Target: Putative Trypsin
Amino acid sequence: MYFSTLNPLSRSLFFYLIFSSAAIAANLSETITHVKASVVGIGTYSSIRGIQASYSGTGFVVADGLHVVTNAHVLPEKIDTERNEYIGVFVGINPKLYQAKIVSVDSIHDLALLKINGPTLPHFSLGSMQKVKEGMHIAFTGFPIGPVLGLYPVTHRGIISAIVPIATAGRSTRDLNPQRIQQLNHKPFMVFQLDATAYPGNSGSPLYDPSTGKVLGVINMVFVKGSRENVLKDPSGITYAIPVEHVYALLKDSGLSPF
Model:
């Protein structure tokens, strides 16, 4: 057998890789059970339109259990108050709906902070960008293709494949939106490039350490091969996330402690 030809050092490395992968998988399973109650859907709700609820992305609960972080681009450009429309936070598989208001928006880093009108929810703890290294295992939980699959939290895992400037984390001018233009007009900041697959609906998902569940970043875009239709049928497997340091700044500017 091939295994019998390995020298002692190679055998030790082989067993280390096997057992470390098994340990990561076991820790992730426990972590998912702990954190998924803090992952929420983001959208709008109107009691008088045909389809009352409209889902646009993912968010996660932070700080005092009444605040939610998501991407700025997940929020609607405007709210139709004449049709009783408001931003909604959807919690649970059979979702409870909480009305939310915008507390703060950081368009440069594509982040937004909401406050819900309801009881406190389980919240995430924030980690440190300083501990993020290339090759590090990560996971993120969200609601990919939410309108189709429903609000069942789905977890993907991968690694930090690179830490790159935001200016390089795009494909073409067709990917530009107001947030991207603002980002490019300022000094580029570093983002995490992931070897992991995200889908529409994952925007705003928490990127976290599989062992601790501490948030390391926020999923905000994917690399698209060819046309946008390929996002579903032929995903690139390259995803980008905003580092957690910008979440800390968002909370601090709003007078909140990350806990």
Observations:
- Residues 8-35 form the longest helix (28 residues).
- The radius of gyration is 19 Å.
- Residues 63 and 256 are 7 Å apart (CA to CA).
- The domain at 129-252 is CATH 2.40.10.10 (Thrombin, subunit H).
